[in-house]
Specification:
Length: about 425
Amino acid sequence: MASLMQTLVALSLLSMFVCDVRGQLSSTFYAGTCPSLQQIVRSTLAQAVNKEPRMAASILRLFFHDCFVNGCDASILLDDTAAFTGEKNAFPNRNSARGYEVIDAIKSNVEAACRATVSCADILALAARDGVALLHNSSMASFIRRQVILTLFAAALVLCTARAQLSPAFYASTCPNLLRIVRSTMVQAVNREPRIAASILRLFFHDCFVNGCDASILLDDTATFTGEKNAFPNINSAGGYEVIDTIKSNVEAACQATVSCADILALAASDGVALLGGPTWRVQLGRRDATTASQSDANSKLPGPSSSLANLISLFTAQGLSARDMTALSGAHTIGQARCTTFRSHIYSDADVDPSFAALRQQNCPSAAGDDNLAPLDLQTPNRFDNEYYQNLVAKKGLLHSDQELFNNGTQDSW
Ligand code: HEM
């Protein structure tokens, strides 16, 4: 069966793979969360260009200079801080780049309509496009205009894709204490209650499987979407939200508006595993947080405890993960607990269960009561990240039906 090393590789794979999905840009990205965005950008820019037509050119150049330095990420708008010397005063920009105050004005107007939703990078891209369109009646021939616009779009896409690369050093200069802050908050939480490491690892898994590792699982329902927290696999089950909130507050106190919740969740999951004696890995960073979430996707994409092997394989394949990755990732069930309701039918009705194990679990999981009674996923060491989960499967002591499916005369037995 799978080794700890395989579990480790699969865990890092999980976050890389499912993050890429999230990295896709779309012209309707804010359709639900900020429907008036394009109108706001357009009208604020129109005023600025009416006052001074050159402004369209200045903003177009601002966009170009932004994109050429590590992607179209609005880094050109950042003032110097104690931790970094920014791009504003670099030779090509100093006493030359302009239009910052127009972008500021657009940002304020956008914030008034859709608070904390739209990135400055997207505002700059829209403003650059609108500026070109507003000079419609200038001497530029329409063919050239179209080419410029197409090329601008291509540049924005290519450069943003380059930017979508994750890196363990992503916050090295902007939040140098990040890893220490996450780790120390996790140490306190795990010391108080070791199971929290398991709950946060599962939170990360459930986040990643629903449209990428984008912290969408942390979002409460709003008027425009019904989120993932109350989806079947999460309701009365997923936990650890308050620890992520605490970490986020501590990180904000040190580096305001810098680190995504998605990255915090990825780091916390990794720290939790390490604190319970499991493997360590360098967490790739630079994820973007979602502004929306989907309950129906959470219901359809997450595996349930009564899943068959074929079912499990197909849900993991849909995420770009192989059957072998799945078996290795399931090694996470070496820690944590499950509720009686999730394993009752396995210990009462399945044939592939060791009888003494079934009898033991039935003591605290009656056939018609005690839905929320807990049992350890790993019989021997639920607070240690080790290999016993797989040994239990070989002994027919897997707690969930879905666990035992990984060793039940099927394709996964040999891993
Ligand atoms: C293979 C398909 C999987 C299924 C069907 C499954 C299902 C479950 C279920 C039903 C529970 C108990 C929930 C409850 O009682 O409320 C659970 C717990 C848990 N799962 Fe999974 N899981 C799967 C894969 C994974 C993966 C890939 C990870 C992480 C990489 C993971 C991590 C955990 C952890 C750590 C717990 C314990 C949580 C706690 O104690 O709070 N699971 N899982």
